[in-house]
Automatic annotation (TrEMBL):
Coiled coil: 812-846
Keywords assigned by UniProt, alphabetized: Coiled coil, Signal
InterPro entries reported for this sequence: DUF1549, DUF1553
Residues in the signal sequence: 1-19
Top-level division of the source organism's lineage: Bacteria
Record carries keyword Coiled coil: yes
Descriptive protein name: BIG2 domain-containing protein
The organism of origin for this protein: Aureliella helgolandensis
Region ranges (Disordered): 49-68
DUF1553 domain: residues covered: 590-789
């Protein structure tokens, strides 16, 4: 589109949306602007044609703009340099600059940039020879300028910069202007077909009441170019059907506007769909959006799909075969609501959502190694503390309060009493007793959470769902947080310390006395001291513990010093993120932080949690990624998120209210099978998305599907260890050789290393496929003679377990090595006993006999656990130890009958994919079972094939 047509196009825009720079408050007022846009005000009276000779700056004087206006540095010059790319990462915004000239990245430090431009002797803005200023002469020459030609001589951009320089480059560095609103129109961009275009118009409104069309000075970005592509002038071109946001940035303001192209021609008035189809408030908000897009939601899922989906999502556990049959047979109209209530009372609910909360709060055992004595399982204490509160349905704000405002000692607890309690609690490796403590000090004790910067970033991630890392150095054009915002927020942190040597002032003397009474070398420091105290703790001694301290004296000390010097006493202040100023008056700033979190004015706390929980159930957040609540990353359905956040807050932060609201909605219960209108939908919740099971659910699902009913029940009721209850999540803990840790590592359990949801992986990989196909753990679960479902089926029908599977073969090999070692030890003991008898050493004979009996007991235990008692008996019956030969003939079992095959296939499907087999599946599987050489191996093969299907590994 030519520049002239663009100028004409922009004048036809009418409806507007206005946004506060940091808040995005919407209005429907039409914005009137007195001045024409800047490209018109500074347009040259005449431009040289291609046949004209190249004009010098002096020769251009007569062709300049008519206006006598002096451009403003903050309003015009700085944003123009940003739009031209001068302060980008690849140019002068790089941390080392370019060509000796550096600007603030993306141009949000106006004072620093102004000083850089007018630096003495640099000639970027040369007030002695103004027309030779580099900022005028370099960007117009592709040869002289490393960044290429940025604008043409005589263009409006040229004249903005030249007029400013000719006026002596004015800027008052003491008074940065405040942008009050950024009005963007139209409020929504609608496209009827691909290729349709709409122009965005932007008006800035300043604190002095002045308004100006700044479209030509803005930056534009589309969150999905395939749906809506925007050029540098704000002209948006419609593409594929769907919806996204176009983001506008100017000064410190960021405004997203919805851009959509309906999928079908069914797009009518939203109210028609709402009145007839929306069953819940959640569904009403979704229906409004779907109506705009012309999408028809998918039908509800089947009862079997709902039960499997809800069980895996809410409690991380597969439903049992009996549970599937009972639920499908239930004809109650409200059986799904009843099932939701039942799931929320199961032990797995507390475990599932404790793991979720440990992810976002950072329970990483590697980061907790230097706080408490070395033998203490700090990660277990963290897990159990959260678990108790989720199990008791403690309101979320109270749970967070116990973390944010945690203190080591209770109000009336002395240091010695604190150490006595902690010594007792830390001898319990499960960490269950620690759950009774009111606060989770461990959150503040992590190695990666010590500086004020680390605490500010981690706090924003955990409880606000906001990424502020980049604002440590610069403001991104499409994020609202500036370096100044970060520094002001960071001021609330840093006073809290929880390290291996932190003690309150009144504790230091007691600490020293305890070390003396324990006879601990006072020269021991750091890990050496922790190691020594750990030994004493295991021996039952009461040992001294570090404690969390809050340095509340620094502010008072600064005021006292200033007063003593006769200077004005101004209390230090910090600023809540996007909120009010807070005076640091010497009290614990965490109390003010917590009050702000639970206040109605907080724009993030309830939204962040509601959005994260929604993402767990749908595989995508209303804001996605869920840990990036920002103006540029607008919600796909703002009213829906507001409903969930406000309802959650009004419920008293009742976590179960949020789960019920989501689980009982039609949106959650929709089929994964799309229709022709919503097949491409990924974020409007018109159908369920196929999702790979999380790492913990994958491990537990495979384990319980292949286990007998007794073991499966124990796993479901948390009566035995399972992946969902593994507390630690560091790379070191996941690198352990046990099957659970390895499985969690393969399937991407969160390592909780950084402040990012990306610490957990949901991506599929070849290694995951290989694991399910061929890992020893899977085959052991398939073939275990004591706990596998296949073994239970064998006992049900009187079949003998042959032990011919891969896992049994590996187990047989390991057992043979144990038998060989056992035989050598028995022979050695026998010789020693004979020698002792010959010397008359009866006490030594007795001792050797006890050791022999203990060794015998161990061998019998191993044999029983592995179903190899016969092999051990043959070895013991021999005068010398014999290793059982491989390849012994297998027992011959009777062939499977049709009745047996039908029962086995039905239950195999119910146990794995939570449904009855289809007729063709039943026929194929029964034929496979009947024609197998051995019925036990056939059952194992059937189960193996089912856990390797996409239907099993995906939540649908």
């Amino acid at each position: 589109m030519s520049r002239f047509l663009w100028l004409v196009w922009i004048s036809f825009v009418s409806s507007t949306v206005a946004a506060e720079p940091a808040g995005g408050i919407l209005t429907g007022e039409a914005v009137q602007v007195a001045l024409p846009p800047i490209y018109q005000r500074f347009a040259p009276r005449a431009l040289p044609t291609s046949s004209d000779k190249e004009l010098t700056p002096e020769e251009l004087q007569g062709s300049g703009p008519v206006t006598e206006e002096v451009p403003d540095f903050q309003r015009h010059v700085s944003p123009l340099l940003g739009r031209l790319g001068c302060n980008g990462r690849a140019c002068h915004g790089s941390f080392q600059g370019q060509g000796g000239f550096g600007l603030s990245l993306f141009g949000y430090d106006f004072v620093a940039d102004y000083k850089a431009l007018l630096e003495d002797g640099a000639a970027r803005v040369d007030l002695e020879d103004k027309l030779e200023s580099f900022v005028l002469t370099k960007p117009v020459s592709a040869e002289d300028h490393g960044g290429g030609e940025r604008f043409a001589v005589g263009s409006w951009e040229y004249w903005v910069l030249r007029k400013w320089i000719e006026a002596d480059a004015p800027f008052d560095t003491q008074e940065v202007q405040h942008l009050e609103h950024l009005h963007v129109s139209p409020a929504e961009l609608w496209f009827g077909r691909a290729g349709d275009q709409q122009q965005v118009r932007v008006v800035a409104e300043w604190a002095d009441g002045s308004r100006e069309d700044v479209t030509a000075l803005c930056r534009f970005h589309s969150n999905d170019d395939a749906i809506a592509d925007v050029n540098a002038e704000g002209l948006v071109t419609g593409g594929e059907a769907g919806d996204t946001h176009v983001v506008v940035s100017y000064d410190n303001a960021v405004v997203p506007i919805l851009a959509l192209r309906p999928v079908t021609s069914d797009s009518g008035k939203p109210q028609q769909l709402v009145q007839t189809e929306a069953r819940t408030e959640v569904d009403r908000h979704i229906a409004v959006k779907l109506q705009k897009l012309g999408m028809r939601p998918s039908a509800l899922c089947t009862d079997e799909e709902f039960l499997r989906r809800a069980s895996l999502d809410a409690i991380g556990t597969l439903p049992s075969a009996a549970e599937v049959l009972a639920f499908t047979a239930d004809e109650s109209a409200d059986k799904r609501q009843q099932k939701v209530e039942e799931l929320l009372e199961r032990p797995g609910y507390a475990a599932q959502w404790t793991t979720f909360l440990c992810d976002i709060t950072g329970n990483n055992d590697d980061q907790l190694r230097n706080f408490l004595p070395q033998s203490v399982r700090v990660e277990n204490q963290w897990y159990q503390w959260v678990l108790k509160r989720v199990r008791d349905n403690v309101p979320y704000d109270q749970l967070v309060e116990g973390i944010v405002t945690a203190n080591s000692r209770q109000p009336d607890e002395s240091y010695v009493e604190y150490c006595e309690v902690m010594s007792e609690l830390c001898r319990d490796s499960s960490g269950a007793g620690f759950a009774e403590r009111p606060g989770l000090v461990h959150y503040w004790a992590r190695n990666n959470f010590r500086t004020a910067e680390e605490q500010a970033i981690g706090f924003a991630y955990s409880f606000l769902g906001v990424r502020i890392q980049c604002a440590q150095c610069h403001k991104h054009p499409f994020d609202q947080w500036s370096k100044q915002d970060f520094e002001q927020f960071q001021g609330l942190f840093g006073a809290v310390q929880a390290r291996q040597n932190t003690l309150a002032p009144d504790s230091k003397r007691s600490f020293a006395k305890m070390l003396t009474s324990l006879d601990v070398d006072r020269e021991l420091k750091g890990n050496l001291l922790r190691r020594e105290l750990s030994k004493l703790l295991v021996d039952g001694e009461t040992i001294p513990f570090p404690e969390l301290t809050v340095n509340t004296q620094s502010a008072a000390n600064r005021r006292a010093k200033a007063k003593g010097r006769g200077k004005p006493v101004e209390p230090p202040k910090a600023k809540l993120l996007g909120g009010e100023w807070v005076e640091l008056d010497g009290s614990d700033a965490r109390e003010q932080l917590m009050a702000w979190l639970r206040s109605e004015e907080n724009p993030y706390f309830s939204k962040a949690f509601a959005n994260r929980v929604w993402a767990q159930y749908f595989g995508v957040g209303i804001v996605d990624p869920p840990d990036d609540l920002s103006l540029a990353n607008a919600p796909s359905n703002g009213p829906l998120l507001e409903h969930l956040a406000s309802g959650f807050r009004e419920s008293g932060f009742d976590m179960k209210w949020l789960h019920r609201e989501i689980l009982n909605s039609d949106a959650y219960q929709r089929s994964w099978q799309p229709n022709e209108s919503n097949a491409e939908d990924r974020h409007n919740f018109s159908h369920s998305l196929l999702r790979r099971l999380p790492a913990e659910a994958t491990h537990d699902a495979v384990r319980t599907a292949l286990a007998n009913d007794a073991l499966g029940k124990k796993v479901a009721e948390l009566e035995m260890p399972r992946a969902l209850t593994v507390a630690g999540a560091s790379p070191r803990s996941l690198a352990k050789t046990d099957s659970t840790s390895y499985t969690l590592s393969v399937f991407g359990r969160s390592v909780r290393e950084s402040n990012c949801d990306c610490d957990r992986s949901s991506e599929s990989s070849l290694l995951q496929t290989v694991f399910l196909l061929n890992d020893t753990a899977v085959h052991e679960w398939l073939e275990d003679p004591a706990t596998s479902w296949a073994a239970a089926v064998a006992r049900k029908y009187g079949w003998q377990i042959t032990g011919a599977g891969p896992a049994n073969a590996a187990r047989q090999e390991r057992f043979e090595k144990l038998i060989e070692s056992f035989g050598k030890q028995m022979d050695r003991m026998q010789q020693q006993m004979q020698q002792a008898r010959a010397r008359g050493q009866q006490q030594q004979v007795k001792l050797l006999r006890e050791r022999r009996d203990a060794l015998m007991g161990k061998a019998e235990q191993i044999a029983k656990r592995n179903g190899l008692e016969d092999e051990l008996e043959r070895v013991l019956a021999s005068s010398t130890v014999e290793i059982p030969e491989r390849g012994q003939p297998k027992p011959v079992n009777a062939a499977i009958t049709d009745e047996q095959a039908e029962w086995i296939v039905e239950n195999a499907y119910l146990r794995t994919v939570s449904r009855q087999p289809k007729p063709e599946e039943q026929s194929v599987a029964m034929n496979f079972l009947r024609t197998g050489d051995d019925p036990v191996e056939a059952v194992q093969a059937l189960m193996w094939s089912l856990v390797n299907t996409k239907e099993f590994i995906l939540n649908h």
